[in-house]
Amino acid sequence: MTSDDKPISAAASIPGQKATLHDVAERVGVSPRTVSRVVNDEGGFSSATRERVLNAINELGYRPNLLARSLITNRSNTVAFVVPVIDDPFFPEVAQGVQAAARDRGLTMFLAVTEGRLELQRQVLERMASHGIDGLILFPHAEDLDDVARFAGQGLPTVVIDDALDHPNVCVVRSDLEHGVSLAVDHLRERGRTSLAMLANEASPRRKLRRETTFRSMVPNGIVVKSPPTFEAGYRATAELLAREERFDGLFAFNDVMAAGAITAIIDSGRSVPGDISVVGCDDIEMSALLTPGLTTIRIDRERLGAEAVSRLIQLRDSVTAPPASTLTVSLVVRESS
Amino acid sequence: MTSDDKPISAAASIPGQKATLHDVAERVGVSPRTVSRVVNDEGGFSSATRERVLNAINELGYRPNLLARSLITNRSNTVAFVVPVIDDPFFPEVAQGVQAAARDRGLTMFLAVTEGRLELQRQVLERMASHGIDGLILFPHAEDLDDVARFAGQGLPTVVIDDALDHPNVCVVRSDLEHGVSLAVDHLRERGRTSLAMLANEASPRRKLRRETTFRSMVPNGIVVKSPPTFEAGYRATAELLAREERFDGLFAFNDVMAAGAITAIIDSGRSVPGDISVVGCDDIEMSALLTPGLTTIRIDRERLGAEAVSRLIQLRDSVTAPPASTLTVSLVVRESS
DNA sequence: TTGAAAGCGCTAACAT
DNA sequence: ATGTTAGCGCTTTCAA
Q1: Which candidate among A16, B55, B161, B214 keeps its CA 20 to 30 Å from the CA of A47?
Q2: Residues 6+ apart with CB under 8 A from B26
Q3: Which region among A3-17, A170-184, B209-223 has the lowest average model confidence (pLDDT)?
């Protein structure tokens, strides 16, 4: 049964029996405390001791038990990242930024998806809190920040992305979407478009408001249609708009996924993009460059967004006062759809 | 400063001072052991006691400290999911499947990205192990499964996706890509295509082999070009192939992202899809339906793949012998690119 | 049905 | 430079 002819160890069933600090100490002939000092590089040991301890660690394949450490330090070095969905490529790309930044700072990332359901968000937060996460980064459920506020109130450092929450344990990181909308609208007008419509996100009151409100204020007579932020919904909403014979020659969509749906609907209706209608999206997900026509859009730097969130979270954790909200700039990427 | 006029609590700086099992016990007037029994529903308590304990838990907002529990039970109820990249939509979608399945079974998911770098994979696994994960699900680094084998050897239940590793602590979950290739090739031939080429993944010896080998055996005279599995690389490889004046009228790509690159390259060269060349991809990521022309592809059910991985992992953890490898069926989705 | 004691693996707060 | 004691919050074992 055993793969080679080594003597069968005492605990035959568990090959790699985990070594503890104690085991290392015993083997070297020092106290566990000394090993701990070396492991954490606290100083207070001779370099000879250090050497011997390090060797023993290698020989035994010792690996610190982070759970035990966390229990006493009250630091788990874990972060939770919570997103509503993951089939919109925007979120995974932010996740990548969060994970990379977290990893570089010695943090490990939990990822959870709430499917936009409030009760799932609550369950997820509950469980994350039980795991003793050091901090939380999330795109909060649009309707209700109460849960988030509750956990923050219990002392959980929290970074809220693209939403607002005034709380000493909460820091906000956002993209400058107001500016994004103005870039989009200005661009459409420069293209000679005079009747503008917006495909807004029905599911996201506060976040929507940022884009929708800006749009409304810039385009008082503009048409605003709300739909879920998916390809299919964007398609349907646009098709209905066209069927109603509403006149518009420029469309700004809440995100690229909806914009893609809109383009397809416009083309399916026998119109052309950008011949009849110019379309501008928001996010600049990878797909947007691959569409036909390529999608003109407002670019959000997701990696940076994720990294910024981690950085703010750490500031929040390590300081008494919450750092101010940070706002990341966005830019216009012009492709063929406008 | 305080937001309303509640009396300032004793511990002014820490509002939600975390309640422990002990606190609950004290408040109810029972021993911690009894509270523990109720929390874990072990039985051995009167329903009256149960009631009072539950009340106290609510009042104090008690939440079990999973770290402490794990330390003693040696179960953390966490799983690590490790992927090479995340900007290929295929992986996030599997991640969603893993996370949902994990959540439903009371597991929390760590997500890590290795960027296809072996040293990053090692670092990630090392850290995950320190966190005491109960299991690991990964798309392993293509060149080298040694690290994976090492951790499995130390007792870590591991599910390897789309690769092979023979080890009692490892279970393999894969898609039936051999069948997928044969579906693709048969389909291209039914479309009257006689000179077939394949865009293979240079970075993935073993996985590639599955698709590439099948292709070679079905199409002895076929052209096989290798490139990294990205849009740009797929574009470049295809452009070069066309520039070399190689004759082919049907193309099968390792994945949809490469196929999308190929289509763009073909169109940019002045040829048409599927007029001159039919293209078939693999994965059926969301984007594939949105391309122009819509991409014909081999569909892999990512959610199911993720769910299956979790399910196998749990079998692995809870049994002595590794469950057999499972293979998920794939199907052909015909769109306009062929 | 309940509780007391021990200890998971580690670090904090003292020793020396 | 090193060791000792205590205990993080919980479950386990054994006893009542």
Answers
A1: A16
A2: none
A3: A3-17
Residue of A39, A108, A232 to mutate, testing the B interface (most B Cβ within 10 Å of its Cβ): A108
Q: Among residues B203, B206, B214, which one has the least CA distance to residue B180?
A: B214
∠ Cα B87 B92 B96 (to 5°): 170
- Residue in the structure block whose two tokens are 């009849």: A276
Judged on CB neighbours under 10 Å (0-12, 13-18, 19+), A296 is: buried
When computed from its CA atoms, the radius of gyration of chain B, rounded to whole angstroms, is 26
Q: Do residues A36 and A78 lie in contact, with contact meaning Cβ atoms separated by under 8 Å?
A: no
Say whether pTM exceeds 0.85.
yes
Q: List, for residues B171-195, the tens digit of each pLDDT value.
A: 999 999 999 999 999 999 999 999 9
Instruction: Tell me the three state secondary structure of residue A170.
Output: strand
User: Is residue A225 exposed (0-12), middle (13-18) or buried (19+ Cβ within 10 Å)?
Assistant: buried
- The residue with tokens 């750092």 is A323
Q: Which residue of A has its CA nearest to B106?
A: A127
Residues B147 and B325: their CA atoms lie apart, in Å, by: 20
Strand (E) or helix (H) holding B125: helix B118-130
Q: Which nucleotides of D are covered by protein (CB under 7 A)?
A: 1-5, 7-13
Task: Report the gap between the CA of B221 and the closest CA in chain A (Å).
Answer: 31
Q: How far apart are CA A119 and CA A128, in angstroms?
A: 14
Residue from A57, A74, A86, A128 to probe the interface with B (highest B Cβ count within 10 Å): A86
Of B67, B96, B110, the CB nearest to A109: B110
Protein CA at B38 to nucleotide C1' at C2, angstroms: 12
Q: Has residue B135 got a pLDDT over 50?
A: yes
CATH code that applies to domain B75-175+302-329 = 3.40.50.2300
From the list B52, B12, B6, B13, the residue with the least C-alpha distance to B29 is: B52
CB-neighbour burial class of residue A327 (10 A; exposed 0-12, middle 13-18, buried 19+): middle
Q: Which residue, counting CA atoms, is nearest to the C1' of nucleotide D6?
A: A72
| Residues shown for chain B | 338
pLDDT in tens, B197-229: 999 998 765 655 788 999 999 999 999 999 999
Q: What fold characterizes domain B3-64?
A: 434 Repressor (Amino-terminal Domain) (1.10.260)
**Ranges of H-type helices in A170-327:** 177-190, 205-218, 231-243, 256-268, 302-318
Inter-chain CB proximity A89 and B93 less than 8 Å:
no
One-letter amino acid of A164: A
Of B87, B95, B290, the CB nearest to A260: B290
In the stretch 107-126 of chain A, residues with CB closer than 8 A to chain B read 108-113, 123-124, 126
Answer whether B71 sits within 8 Å of A67, measured CB to CB: yes
> How far does the CA of residue B189 sit from the closest CA of chain A (Å)?
27
Q: Where are the domains of chain B?
A: 3-64, 75-175+302-329, 177-299
Contact A110 B109 (CB under 8 A): yes
CATH of domain A177-299: 3.40.50.2300
Question: What's the CA angle centered on A17, arms A15 and A22, to 5 degrees?
Answer: 160
Q: Note whether A75-175+302-329 and A177-299 share their fold.
A: yes
Distance of alpha carbon A30 from the chain centroid = 45
